[in-house]
Amino acid sequence: MSLVNLRTGLWIRMGVASLLGLVGVLVLFVVEIVLASLISFAFVEGVPEMAGMVLVLVLVASGFLLGWWLTATVLARLVSPGALSERLAHDGVSDAAAGLGGLFWNPTQVVPPKYLGLAGGGALSFILLYTLIVDVLEISAAYIGVVVGLGFVGWQTYRLVETELRQDGAVRSDLEEAYGVIEDDEREPELRARVRRLARQADVPTPEVRVGTTRTPQAATVGYRAEQSVIVVSRGLLETLDDHELDAVLAHELAHLSNRDAAVLTGLLFPATKASMVLTRFNHPIILVVVAPVYVSSRVSVAIVARYREYVADAAAASVTGNPAALASALEKLDGDRSRRPDTDMRAERSTAAFGIVPPPWQEKRYFDGAARFVVRGVLGTHPSTDSRIERLRNAADATESRTVTAEQQ
């Protein structure tokens, strides 16, 4: 399949996934706004009672404090402070008695009057504000609840988007840690020159390049924008692949940057992220029934688009290098090498596995292994099977060779 056809198929999948995501986000917004509005309405309706209770408590505490202060003042004229603790000195409890005595003689330190004033003033302000808005201006509590709910949902969504954008840096840190990146690796200058050459061929800005010490052959890319992205490769990758295969892998990673795959997949994953936030904040069976389908559809959509983007990146790499067979050979080596390695080699990079060029080896489950593999690798997997990618690339290589032979015969 040609790169143009692949990209057309990708746009169709992205369109469907985006539509599902948009519907999901709208459902989540409605759920959040309704719940936040109901909670805000209940709070506004209860303001007079709650503020009144606070005022009563403040008055009671103030009366108690006043009585305490008068008692301490009178006793201070009759008994010298510290006399009791001095009498208890022989019992070894003079320090404790002195501490308690200090609290008794200074009631305003135990209950500072300014805090009572703040609590009373705040409660009185709430009552006056409620009276002004609801009784004088005749603005209903339901309307206030909706406004507060909209503001709350808008603020939480803004914070969520801001957090997701910051995750770019967090993922990069995780990748560099998983790959064992070190500063000024001796292979970086050569690798940087290779990436610069391929970036010019692909017509994309040259990303940063980092080399990790791990012997597991792996490569990954992170970054929402090509000019602020980084390609991380391991020494194991550099030692496993020949020059043509290394070029093909780097061209594949550059294709991800050119297509802004990280930003696209983060956007498609937003409904699932927001659904998780809603379930965390409003943990109720009815909310679960409404929100769970949004979460599942978002995760499935992301997986479908992510898998197809791997095919597009493979085809783009083959187009840049003109050598589909090299990438097929590289994928075969990488997948085979990782499958032979013990599972302990992969545990440190579980959270960054989705960013690698091939998925980590499957860990067989004791029970229901087939079902687990189908869900994790089939339904929610971010990579298509390596065998299917190799087959596509080899078919493309055969087609290229056939066209070359035909051209030479003519």
From TrEMBL:
Give the stretches traversing the membrane.
20-44, 50-70, 115-133, 139-158
| Cofactor: how and how many bound | Binds 1 zinc ion per subunit.
- Entry keywords, A to Z: Cell membrane, Hydrolase, Membrane, Metal-binding, Metalloprotease, Protease, Transmembrane, Transmembrane helix, Zinc
**UniProt record, GO biological process:** proteolysis
* Annotated Peptidase M48 domain residues: 187-396
Q: Which domain of life is it from?
A: Archaea
For activity, the cofactor(s) needed are: Zn(2+)
Q: Which InterPro entries match?
A: HtpX_protease, Peptidase_M48
- State the Gene Ontology terms under molecular function: metal ion binding; metalloendopeptidase activity
Looking at the keywords, is Cell membrane present?
yes
Q: Which PANTHER family match?
A: PROTEASE HTPX, PROTEASE HTPX HOMOLOG
The UniProt family comment states:
Belongs to the peptidase M48 family.
Q: What is this protein called?
A: Peptidase family M48
Which species is this UniProt entry from? Natronorubrum daqingense
